[in-house]
Amino acid sequence: MFEEVSQILVVDDEAVNLELISAIFIDSPNIVILTARDGVEALEILKNHTPDVIVLDIRMPRMNGIEVLEVLKSDSRTSHIPVVVLSGDDRERKNALKHGANDFIPKPFDAEELKLRVINNLQVKKYQDLVRNINEVLQKELMKKTKELREALELAKEAEYEMVVKFGMISEFRDEETGQHIRRISYYSKLLAQLIGLPESEQNIIFYASPLHDVGKVGIPDNILKKPGPLTPEEFEIMKLHTIIGGRILTSQPKFITLQAGKIIAEQHHEKWDGSGYPYGLKGEEIHIYARIVAVCDVFDAITSDRVYRPAFSIEQAIDIMKKGRESHFDPQLLDIFLNNFDEFLKIRETFKD
């Protein structure tokens, strides 16, 4: 799957788990497995190696997984490495996410699920590295002639958008949506930003960042993400974690404007105007304008598209549903502008059909 060699560090105090996880990747010649029996040994390995993903057990002697996470996320050399935690305890998994874990796998783990989750996080890491590299290239291009710079910037922006779309689609390959949903959200969001009078620079930011709204779904188990019926309260609590996971994935330095905006949108696009949303219960203008814009656009696109748990609603039904959420779910001013310019959004929907 990956042309260059990728390293995965597995940290677990049970030798049988280290052997089993190593065996899972034996048919992947471009993946090298490093192993550590506890947190102390893992940190020693990290002095000489920079793995692309860390699989981390929580309960270990000498230094447990939470303590290791605290060290990893406080060090700039390791804070960007995705960490997939192993734990059979729901509270431990939530605590690990709060301490910066990117994903979790229940114990005892399913070998196929573990492999898929690790590879998903490996893909995310590769895309993040690629975005960083592009930004470095752009900084160097600033030293070149104006004409060359313009051409490079245009090409880089096109490449950045395609990468962001594909980055956003990582979770959608599991959620059975399509890249057209990602593109519709992108164009809807930019249009709504334009209609409310945001400057062109911010219109472009939301255009590039909005496709990342659901990237955290990469961390949600398939049996919940693809469930054909209603979720139980317990399953819904896990589903809500995709906002926090998305924020973790997109955490970056402030100079990476697209990723910073994507983090805000990923974390806040399920917040509601009346404060009844998640994950933080933000209310009114406490919710960032980018997230309020994407909330309107995402709900419209979601309810007018087929989902595994229900068929699409008609346009008329969608408008009815959204009007009912005018001062509870949505920023009323944004919703009014959206509905008053509805024909323009329908043109986008027609352009990017599934």
Descriptive report:
This protein is of the alpha/beta class and 354 residues long. The chain folds into two domains: 6-121, Response regulator (Rossmann fold), CATH 3.40.50.2300; 144-351, Hypothetical protein af1432, CATH 1.10.3210. 57% of the residues lie in helices and 7% in strands. It contains 15 helices and five strands. The protein has helices spanning 15-24, 39-46, 65-74, 90-98, 111-141, 146-175, 179-195, 200-209, 222-225, 233-250, 257-268, 289-303, 315-324, 332-340, 342-351; strands spanning 6-11, 31-36, 53-57, 83-87, 103-106. A five-stranded parallel sheet has the order 2-1-3-4-5, with helices on both faces. Helix 3 (65-74) links the parallel strand 3 (53-57) and strand 4 (83-87). The longest helix has 31 residues, at 111-141. The protein is globular and about 60 Å long. The two termini are 27 Å apart. The relative contact order is 0.08. The model is unreliable at 173-177 (pLDDT under 50). Residues 135-162 form a coiled coil. Keywords: Coiled coil, Phosphoprotein. The modification 4-aspartylphosphate is found at residue 57. This is Two-component system response regulator. Residues 7-122 form the Response regulatory domain.
